# Entry
Amino acid sequence: MSSVSMDGPIIETHGLRRTFTVRDGLRRRTVVAVEGLDLRIEPGEAVGYIGANGAGKSTTIKMLTGILVPTAGEVRTCGLRPVPDRRRLARHVGVVFGQRSQLWWDLPTEESFELLAAIHRLSPDDARSRRSELVERLELDEFLTTPVRQLSLGQRMRAEVAAALLHRPRLVILDEPTIGLDVLSKQRLREFLVTERHEHGTTLLLTTHDMGDVERLCDRVVLVDRGSVAFEGTLAGLSRTVGADRVLTVDLAEPVPDLGTVATLPGVRHQGHEGHGLRHRFAFDAEQTTVVALLAALSAHAEVRDLAIEEPDVEDVVRRVYAARR
Ligand SMILES: Nc1ncnc2c1ncn2[C@@H]1O[C@H](COP(=O)(O)OP(=O)(O)OP(=O)(O)O)[C@@H](O)[C@H]1O
# Structure
């Protein structure tokens, strides 16, 4: 029997592959969902696992957690083999699916927590203290006695996260955790995950289409394309590779058509102007120049009335990486 490794990587895969056989009319066809995937994630890391729809993210997560058997290759999660050791692995891993509930639909949230505490065999003291910690941090108080099916999406996601983290897993896998949430709920959930990680050294692996999740939560991104790794590194590194800059748009009090030539800072590109120079767009690399420095440089030459900052979006970054590979 394999043992739970406390110092090796939390996730390690070599040449991981998974295919599906699908029917195409009368014929059968093989779909390769994951192809030769090599991943290594160390304890305490927070990794964003991104890619287009159908790139193989969910299939990977299912293999990491023992829901799906790999067609070929090696996989270890917390030092265990996910399929044969699935029950032992469940003690060390918490999984949150943004689009699928793991709570008991007709039960009040607090009863789901009691059931989960029993399933994970937490001691009554441990269950009580962890529960109060989560209730406080995720602000669950107001709806603990409400059946899950009556919760709003934001409330349900907080309850899902609490349920997945009740047993203090070493690894938390989140599949689109902020999908459909409003700005405030997203922010709260991200803040909670950051605190949890700092206090308990929890490893995070999350799939997302929201660049804000990656920016605020992850030290590293792994980008998959057709089931294998297309990029691995920091978000800044990814932005450098494909030029996913932020864009600052400024509206001026008076037209200044040549503003693009006067604001010369490292990592800033003037993208053009409209309205005879009333509105200008600047793409900038946040690693090299802050928005404050750029604004200060512009204000020396023009009176800025209004401004907007656009963040790079995951789909756009992914498209550019794919385009560069094909
Ligand atoms: N059970 C299945 N049967 C047949 N094909 C499947 C099955 N599950 C996944 N696939 C196929 O495998 C490929 C990878 O799918 P997967 O769901 O892992 O992608 P994904 O990156 O998670 O996409 P999304 O962002 O849309 O969730 C797709 O072509 C998908 O159609």
Q: What stands out?
A: Residues 20, 22, 31, 33, 51, 53-59 surround adenosine-5'-triphosphate (CB under 6 Å).
